[in-house]
Amino acid sequence: MNPLTLAPEVIPDLIARLTPRQLEVIGLLAQGQSTKQTSNILSISSETVKRHIYRACQKMEIENRAQLIVIFTMWEVMK
Q1: Which of 55, 58, 2, 63 is nearest to 25 (CA)?
Q2: I need a labelling partner for 25 at 20 to 30 A (CA). Which of 1, 34, 62, 64 fits?
Q3: What is the CATH number of the domain that holds 69?
Q4: At what angle do helices 35-42 and 46-60 cross, to 10 degrees?
Q5: Domain that holds residue 38
Q6: pTM for this one?
Q7: C-beta pairs of 64-71 under 8 Å, 24+ apart in sequence
Q8: Which of 36, 61, 58 is nearest to 49 (CA)?
Q9: Over the stretch 39-70, which tens digit does the pLDDT of each residue have?
């Protein structure tokens, strides 16, 4: 799935698949935080951050964190 070709009405449905913690992690990444910085801010391990990213990508049926951040950013703009 290419996030740049998504219909805007699909984005809230994709975001709704995520847990609050996954949204928190993605939000920090979208702000430019690294995996390590995100883990420090949330007091979790880097592996846990990576696991949140992986599972979020699975739930949204996308391939990588860049696509995840694009969809999250589009959702933030739409709110």
Answers
A1: 55
A2: 1
A3: 1.10.10.10
A4: 110
A5: 3-78
A6: 0.91
A7: 65/29, 67/1, 67/2, 67/3, 68/26, 68/29, 69/26, 69/29, 69/30, 70/3, 70/4, 71/3, 71/6, 71/11, 71/14, 71/15
A8: 36
A9: 999 999 999 999 999 999 999 999 999 999 99
How far is residue 46 CA from its own chain's centroid? Answer: 15
Q: How far apart, in whole angstroms, are the C-alpha atoms of residue 70 and residue 76?
A: 10
Number of domains in the chain: 1
Cα separation, 59 vs 16, whole angstroms = 10
Q: How far apart are CA 35 and CA 55, in angstroms?
A: 15
Instruction: Specify whether the CB–CB gap between 60 and 68 falls below 8 A.
Output: yes
